[in-house]
């Protein structure tokens, strides 16, 4: 029986994900490094802003931090309740998930890697996709808690499998983003109306999440709203490329994309959205995608 649930890390994603928990659980603890965000969450959604050491006495503990290193540092400093399930929604590193799952198991604590996809709007509308790695029986026990903010929730394999799926997904997003920038810049160089081209492509085989959402809602309207930071995409493509290398596979397209996203991240303005990666290509070509 899940009685208390905690959420650690109330960033762009976590703040919105944790907002759904009080609709399903009586006791919901929240904690954030900048604690005023936790207090604001409590006021807004009826959660309880609480000391971190108390928060980890919950039956289910969610975390959503930038990196696996942040999660590991936190976990290493805590005395977590025996019998608890820690569900890490960070887009993390598969090897870190395996290590954490193994070390926590010795203290009778279960660990699931459960990264999410669907961006802040999906977190707000509780329509996230959740890809989960870990013990299948633990997945079954944790499912009701994940259903509060997830729509498609899949157990994809042992510890680390969820993080691996997420990293490859975001690499595919990056490949799409860069190729869309090249393709639409080419069209503009040939005098084609980009909005009409976009309508055609979105009704054709070249469409993708990038052409359907990022291009119209972030790039062509020049808004680049910061909801998924470019350094986080650069981190994810790095994780994916590490997986390629660990498997000793050739993946020239993915390696090139990782370099491009890395370079775009290094040259981007601070606080850039992932979609702003196209600005590096615009600087090379002197053609603006608008
Ligand atoms: P944000 O940068 O908005 O939030 C990060 C959160 O982590 C903040 O609450 C921050 O606290 C906290 N934090 C950062 N470092 C530490 C630390 N060392 N110890 C404790 N707390 C820390 O990130 P997002 O919410 O955008 O992303 C979170 C995760 O979700 C990432 O792994 C990302 O890749 C993934 N993701 C993001 C999506 C998006 O659209 N944004 C979509 C899907 C996945 P503080 O407020 O004090 O800074």
Topology:
Layout (H helix, E strand, L loop, with lengths): L3 E5 L5 H5 L8 E5 L3 H11 L2 E2 L2 H4 L4 E4 L4 H9 L8 E4 L5 H12 L4 E4 L2 E2 L1 H6 L3 E6 L2 H11 L3 E8 L3 H29 L4 H8 L7 H11 L10 H17 L5 H16 L10 H8 L5
Parallel strand pairs: 1-2, 1-4, 2-3, 4-5, 5-6, 8-9
Antiparallel strand pairs: 7-8
The chain binds NADPH dihydro-nicotinamide-adenine-dinucleotide phosphate.
Principal-axis shape: globular
Please give the count of helices. Answer: 13
Query: Order of SSEs, N→C?
Result: EHEHEHEHEHEEHEHEHHHHHH
How many β-strand stretches?
Answer: 9
- Over the alpha carbons, how many angstroms does the gyration radius reach? 20 Å
End-to-end Cα distance, whole Å, is 53 Å
Contiguous uncertain segments of 5+ residues = none
Structural class: alpha/beta
What strand line-up does the widest sheet have? 3-2-1-4-5-6
Portion in strands: 5-15%
Main sheet makeup: 6 strands, parallel
The molecules bound to the chains, other than polymers, are: NADPH dihydro-nicotinamide-adenine-dinucleotide phosphate
Helix content: 40-55%
């Amino acid at each position: 029986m899940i009685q208390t649930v905690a959420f650690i890390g109330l960033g762009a994603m976590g703040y919105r994900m944790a907002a759904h928990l009080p609709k399903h659980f009586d006791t919901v603890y929240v904690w954030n490094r900048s604690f005023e965000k936790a207090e604001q969450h409590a006021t807004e959604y009826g959660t309880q802003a609480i000391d971190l050491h108390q928060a980890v006495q919950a039956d289910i503990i969610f975390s959503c931090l930038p990196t696996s290193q942040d999660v590991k540092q936190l976990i290493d400093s805590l005395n977590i309740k025996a019998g608890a399930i820690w569900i890490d929604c960070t887009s993390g590193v598969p090897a870190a998930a395996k290590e954490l799952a193994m070390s926590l198991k010795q203290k009778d604590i279960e660990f699931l890697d459960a990264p999410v996809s669907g961006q802040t709007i999906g977190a707000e509308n509780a329509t996230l996709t959740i890809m989960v790695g870990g013990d299948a029986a633990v997945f079954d026990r944790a499912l009701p808690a994940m259903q509060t903010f997830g729509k498609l929730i899949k157990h994809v394999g042992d510890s680390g499998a969820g993080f691996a799926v997420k990293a490859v997904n975001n690499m595919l997003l990056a490949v799409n983003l860069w190729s869309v920038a090249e393709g639409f810049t080419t069209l503009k160089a040939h005098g084609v109306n980009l909005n009409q081209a976009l309508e055609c492509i979105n009704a054709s085989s070249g469409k993708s999440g990038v052409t359907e959402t990022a291009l119209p809602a972030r790039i062509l309207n020049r808004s680049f709203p910061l909801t998924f930071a470019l350094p986080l995409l650069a981190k994810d493509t790095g994780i994916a490329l590490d997986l390629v290398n660990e498997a000793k596979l050739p993946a020239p397209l993915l390696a090139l994309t990782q370099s491009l996203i890395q370079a775009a991240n290094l040259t981007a303005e601070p606080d850039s959205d992932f979609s702003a990666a196209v600005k590096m290509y615009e600087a090379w070509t002197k053609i603006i995608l608008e």
